[in-house]
Amino acid sequence: PRTPLTLLGTGAMGTALGRAWLAAGHPLTVWNRTPERTAALTAEGAVAAGSAAEAVAANRLVVACLLDDASVGAALEGADLAGRDLVNLTTGTPADGRARAAWAEERGARFVDGGIMAVPPMIGAPGAFVLYSGDPDLFQEHRDTLAVPAGTEYVGADPGLAALHDVALLSGMYGMFGGITQAFALLRGTDVAPKGFAALLVPWLNAMADAAHRTAERLESGDYTTGVVSNLAMQVAGTDTLLRTAAEQGVSPELLSPFLDLMRRRLADGHDAEDTTGLVHLLHTR
Ligand code: NDP
């Protein structure tokens, strides 16, 4: 028999998660602040509870997927969490995760925080995964159930670690989105077809993403020097071409300049034989 569980929050993401558990045969109790929004899942066999407290009372395993950390506190205010296993898939900061873990433990619950690395249509399909951190025993015991909607990636007992990984991955993604935005801005108003260009850009970005492994190796070894290959002196000399081309195309340098400025500062500090790894140090404010 499949483990029964409770799902708090049947928004876009909660509904996608709930569908996957129902399809796999898990008995599911659901609650949503706006009761009408549980209809899609009750039509597929979920049982709707009249309150969050009732939903929590129904099962040991309770998954919350609400808007933000404050809504988790609001939803669970009157619920008895003693003996429950609370898995919080609501997006928050590392400090939110740690505070929510302490809050749950004070109420007698075990706690795991999660960060969903997928959009709702990806749930139940290959490629989606969820980062988990917190109580290792809870995670081990419920791993099979948690693995139904998406792959599982446990990153440590500190409950803040899932959010830290989540935001670090999203930060890398937004850097890439910024670069894609700049690239298409350069081409706008020219005869270059966006789709044809994308066919070049995607394999280029995939090949360049591998640079993260080099950065990781350098951070771990402490040796940031690259020798003559793409060192900072060479890269900074090239930045002028990036900025002049943007100017020629009538494109603002506002996305590119902050990163180029960091490269220049690091070079000015005498790190001409390194790559960009040392920029990590410049960003640290404490
Ligand atoms: P939705 O806006 O679709 O759903 C939000 C849910 O939170 C609803 O169930 C809503 O209830 C509930 N809610 C909001 N405020 C409160 C409150 N004060 N008390 C109780 N319940 C409240 O968002 P998603 O389902 O898309 O997102 C849910 C979580 O999943 C978020 O933390 C989001 O960051 C995360 N996530 C979402 C992704 C996505 O692509 N959608 C991707 C990765 C993570 P009601 O129906 O009553 O408004």
TrEMBL record:
One Pfam family per UniProt: NAD_binding_2
Positions of the 6-phosphogluconate dehydrogenase NADP-binding domain: 6-148
Gene3D superfamilies documented for this protein: N-(1-d-carboxylethyl)-l-norvaline Dehydrogenase, domain 2, NAD(P)-binding Rossmann-like Domain
Keyword annotations of the record: Oxidoreductase
NADPH-dependent reductive aminase-like C-terminal domain: residues covered: 158-283
Family the entry assigns: Belongs to the HIBADH-related family.
PANTHER family: CYTOKINE-LIKE NUCLEAR FACTOR N-PAC, OXIDOREDUCTASE GLYR1-RELATED
Name of this chain's protein: NAD(P)-binding domain-containing protein
